[in-house]
Design brief:
It is a single chain. The chain is built from 16 helices and 14 strands. The chain is an alpha/beta fold. The strands form three sheets. Strands 2-3-4-5-6-8-10-11 form an eight-stranded parallel β-barrel, surrounded by six helices. It has a two-stranded antiparallel sheet with strand order 1-14. It has a two-stranded antiparallel sheet with strand order 12-13. A hairpin with an 8-residue loop joins β8 and β9. α3 packs parallel to α5, α7 runs parallel beside α9 and α8 packs antiparallel against α9. The longest helix has 25 residues. Bound molecules: ligand 8P2. The ligand N#[N+]C[C@@H]1[C@@H](O)[C@H](O)[C@@H](O)[C@@H]2O[C@H]12 binds next to loops.
């Protein structure tokens, strides 16, 4: 047996998001979100599932926090439902929304758990979508008003802020592929949405500094690793394009103040280019305190002419897969983080999401999810490699604390350390919960 030891101040946590767990979709003055509308639209979500109730965490947060305390985590990453604060997206604040999150955050702090707050985890107020959503630059101003309200309201309570969760999903998955709300399929629109998110991010970071808010601020992109199938020039270039679709396009603006030119040229060939206004790129690269990285998977990539968007096909060399069909590719995490550090410097990094979908349920009151334990162990070992290789890694926040509404997959896909029975809402810690608790308590892995 070997022991892998983590730094004494390494942060272990778990994550969820508002629309995925809260429910109470129309309670206490909350306005509609684009996910309320999308999930209520027939055919958009598996089994016609929606987040009306979800895990009912809006009402059961004290039970959830008690479980978090038992888990022993020092950080809990959650998101604020913007439509609870501004039901119309801007204008009048909903006091009951603020009151809810104060009760919630106070309970976390009372239990010694640091709140890591994501301002935007996809539940845009529908009222803003009806005025163009993120395709409308005016949404940036509404977001700034919302962010300022939250910064001032929770000053001293919340000290870790994330502006946006997975800009690639908000732009590409939701406005080009169309699988997520609002479900558009337009590459130009997706590029403009991504750019507006970046401008909103940069302006928010600048405001955070100007207001002198105590704490740190960052953003949480989702990154993937694609390894070229061979060292043939065409395969190397195809893998580079596929990586850049997820990675460089969402990192270069933050750290270099520009988009990767080879991708700008590639998109131009497809008839799309970013509408950049004077000063935008300077704003976007406002320095951040940390980068949140969401990593799940990767693959091999091979050149294939006119195949999909990047003349690039994924080659499945028989990777083991999780129950959502994603390759288990832990080495990709090491490659991603070492590449990121070599490319952008020693930016402080938290893994803000990493986890596996396995749909194990209770048998005799116990959930035997050994495959999730194996997935987590393999990826956490890679994190230790990263630390040994000089990556400025500050913590690991696993996805997810509990089973929840898995977007277009509805409740058919389970990522939690805690099982949720959606009929009774009973919470059952899985074997992985107890495995993770040991890791959190000892700060080392026995392998
Ligand atoms: N699918 N999946 C799991 C997980 C999703 O539940 C999160 O909300 C996203 O931030 C990210 O996509 C990852």
């Amino acid at each position: 047996m070997s022991v892998i030891q983590f730094p004494k101040d390494f942060v272990w946590g778990a994550a969820t998001a508002s629309y995925q767990i809260e429910g109470a979709w129309n309670e206490d003055g909350k306005g509609l979100s684009i996910w309320d509308v999308f999930s209520h639209t027939p055919g958009k979500v598996v089994n016609g599932d929606n987040g009306d109730i979800a895990c009912d965490s809006y009402h059961r947060y004290e039970e959830d926090i008690a479980l978090m305390k038992e888990l022993g985590i020092k950080a809990y990453r959650f998101s604020i439902a913007w439509p609870r604060i501004y039901p119309q997206g801007s204008g009048e604040v909903n006091p009951k929304g603020l009151e809810y999150y104060h009760r919630f955050v106070d309970k976390l702090i009372e239990n010694g758990i640091e709140p890591y707050c994501t301002l935007y985890h996809w539940d845009l107020p529908q009222a803003l979508q009806e005025k163009g959503g993120w395709n409308n630059r005016e949404t940036i101003d509404a977001y700034l008003q919302y962010a300022e309200t939250m910064f001032k309201e929770f000053q001293g309570k919340i000290k870790y802020w994330i502006t946006f969760n997975e800009p690639w999903c908000v732009s590409m998955l939701s406005n080009y592929i169309g699988a997520h709300a609002p479900g558009n399929q337009d590459l130009q629109l997706a590029l403009d949405v991504a750019h507006h998110l970046f401008v909103a991010h940069g302006k928010t970071v600048r405001m955070f500094r100007e207001l002198g808010i105590e704490g740190q601020i960052g953003i949480a992109p989702n990154l993937y690793w694609y390894e070229p199938y061979s060292n043939r020039k065409e395969d190397v270039e195809a893998a580079r394009r596929k990586r850049a679709w997820y990675n460089e396009w969402f990192l270069d603006p933050l750290f270099k103040g520009s988009y990767p030119q080879f991708m700008v040229d590639w998109y131009k060939k497809k008839g799309a280019e970013v509408n950049i206004q004077p000063g935008d790129m300077e704003i976007i690269k406002e320095p951040i305190d940390f980068l949140g990285i969401n990593y799940y998977s990767g693959s091999l990539a091979r050149y294939k002419e006119n195949f999909e968007d990047f003349d690039c096909e994924e080659i499945d060399e028989g990777y083991e897969k999780t129950d959502i069909g994603w390759n288990i590719y832990p080495e990709g995490l090491y490659k991603t983080l070492t590449w990121l550090t070599e490319t952008y410097g020693p930016v402080p990094i938290y893994i803000t999401e990493n986890g596996a979908c396995y749909n194990d349920g209770p048998v005799d009151g116990r959930v035997r999810d050994q495959k999730r334990i194996d997935y987590l162990q393999k990826h956490i070992i890679q994190l230790n490699r990263c630390i040994q290789s000089g990556v400025n890694l500050k913590g690991y926040i696993t996805w997810s604390f509990m089973d929840n509404f898995e977007w277009a997959e509805g409740y058919s896909k389970r990522f939690g350390l805690v099982h949720v029975d959606y009929n009774t809402l009973k919470r059952t810690p899985k074997d992985s919960f107890y495995w993770y608790r040991h890791l959190v308590r000892t700060n080392w892995l026995d392998i």
